[in-house]
Amino acid sequence: MVTGPVLNNAKPARRQHVEPEAQGPKKLPWGEGERLQKVLAKAGVASRRAAEELINQGRVEVDGAIVREQGLRIDPDHAVVRVDGVRVVVRDEQVYLALNKPKGWQSTMADEMNRPCVGDIVAERVVAGQRLFHVGRLDADTEGLLLLTNDGDLAHRLMHPSFEVSKTYLATVAGEIHGREVGKRLRDGVELEDGPAKVDRFQVLEVGEGKSLVKVVLHEGRKHIVRRLLAAVGHPVTALVRTNIGPVALGDQRPGTLRVLGRDEIGKLYEAVSL
């Protein structure tokens, strides 16, 4: 039994402009491109036989149109392929990685002061010719999720504020937070030196021994934004971890380790930024 990707019901960001897709695939002659079921199999969607079933069931789109024709040849470098509405990345050269950046490491591919940095962790990949972008930054004292990719379009959109991709943090802060006042202030907005800022969600997870563990969700990308917001409401951060970027979660991944993103995760990232 073939299980399709989980549908993403996220709405497009209010301010973004989405280009209409072409209506239907451009058919390529024999000998050019690759057969659609082979492309799906190479992308890890299903075996070729199971991919043929997906096509028969009308669950596969190419360039905005449902495809039921077996053996259709497409250009995997340019065709937009979706299964059950979720985009499938089919280009062999694309790399999508999740890194748990350790505390004390720089969010750069190289460091002039020879401090440990993200580039050290992916050095072998860079030497092998992969040109990787890190999606956003984390300050040296913050641990947690960074995405690395050579997909420049995806990286740009994930970092652009107009797409409002959320980020989730776990913060240990000074002081015991009781009641709802702090959360309300953060959700309503706090005036910082570079303008107002607010969180999308705030939750107190643990309180005791003069400190609190809180979860903060926001789509702001300004420097040290979580630390500055919490300090502004009287609870400076003592430890900070980013656990999620949009649909991608850090999970139990150890600091300093990499993992390749799954097909569903990549598809959901594409959906989040309307690619």
Automatic annotation (TrEMBL):
Keyword RNA-binding belongs to the record: yes
Gene Ontology BP annotations: enzyme-directed rRNA pseudouridine synthesis
Catalysed reaction, written as an equation: a uridine in RNA = a pseudouridine in RNA
Gene3D superfamilies given in the database record: Pseudouridine synthase (3.30.2350.10), RNA-binding S4 domain (3.10.290.10)
GO cellular component: cytosol
UniProt keyword annotations, A-Z: Isomerase, RNA-binding
Family note: Belongs to the pseudouridine synthase RsuA family.
Protein name: Pseudouridine synthase
Annotated source species: Nocardia otitidiscaviarum
